[in-house]
Amino acid sequence: MGIALSVKGNDNYFHSAYWHFHIIRTKLAVLAGIDLNQINMLLDGLNLVRRVSGEYFGDFECFPSTEALDALVPDTNTPKKKWNKGTDPIIPFLKHSDCNGYIGPKQCGAMIKRMRSLLAVWPKADEDYDSMRLIIELMEYAASNGKRLIFS
After folding, report:
1. How many domains does the chain have?
2. Which of 34, 77, 105, 123 has the fewest CB atoms within 10 Å, measured from its CB?
3. How confident is the model over 45-87, as pLDDT tens digits?
4. Which domain holds residue 113?
């Protein structure tokens, strides 16, 4: 089981385990400087992310250690803050269900420039760099062809 991101008419697709997609979105949010407490994106996977942080965040400059990750993400016992929609265009991607629904072409188009700017500072040696690049390419295809980025 896992998540798949696809666009009708494009043979490329992104497939990942749920927990790994969760890590990719966490890295993206941290690079963007988004307050993970505020968007509450780490509800169920938080403890898993902490357990695997040494393996999956070890070479990622934003996560030099589990302690650094603990400082950036909410504690599962912390009361949730009221959601403030914020202004970063990637927030809809971070908040989206990971197993159903879609992001429309206009919304994909609104995210592309910001996603590309974050990919530019993403460590190229990181194992998730190519996954993030593929996700952006799917968004670009969706936006330029009037298609939906489908989460399934």
Report:
1. 1
2. 77
3. 444 444 444 444 444 444 434 454 454 444 544 444 444 456 8
4. 3-151
